[in-house]
Amino acid sequence: MDLRFASAADLARAIQRGDLSPTQLMEFTLQQLEHVNPKLNAFVATHPADRLMEQARAVEQRLARKEEVGPLAGLPLGVKDLEDTVGLPTTHGSLLFR
Predict the structure, then answer these.
(1) What is the domain count for the chain?
(2) Of 26, 60, 97, 98, which has the fewest beta carbons less than 10 angstroms from its beta carbon?
(3) SS3 per residue for 13-63
(4) What gap in Å lies between CA 26 and CA 44, rounded to an integer?
(5) 14 — alpha (psi -120 to 50), left (phi > 0) or beta?
(6) Residue of 85, 61, 87, 83 lying closest to 74 (CA atoms)
(7) Residue 12 pairs with which residues in a beta bridge?
(8) Domain that includes residue 49, residue range
(9) 15 belongs to a structural domain
(10) pLDDT per residue of the chain (98 residues) written in tens, 0 to 9
């Protein structure tokens, strides 16, 4: 599966089946973000990579223990810069709010 073009549903199924781990997906996502975001500036801010990897590992451990997780567990999530997010700046896409 080409992760760049996979739907959220396909990624979630792959994680639930064990074909893809949350840490693999997060590593890929962080690499893509590092490669593409300087050109696109699509993400104004992100949590630190080590924190994101820690969260991915936590989901992976829950899956390994066969704990029930939500249908989107392990999927990276981007939040539009118009919504207040704890620990991240909200600029509403404007330099006035930076």
Answers:
(1) 1
(2) 98
(3) HHHHHCCCCHHHHHHHHHHHHHHHHHHHCCCCCCCCHHHHHHHHHHHHHHH
(4) 18
(5) alpha
(6) 61
(7) none
(8) 9-67
(9) yes
(10) 999 999 999 999 999 999 999 999 999 999 999 999 999 888 888 889 999 999 999 999 999 999 999 999 999 998 877 888 888 778 787 777 77
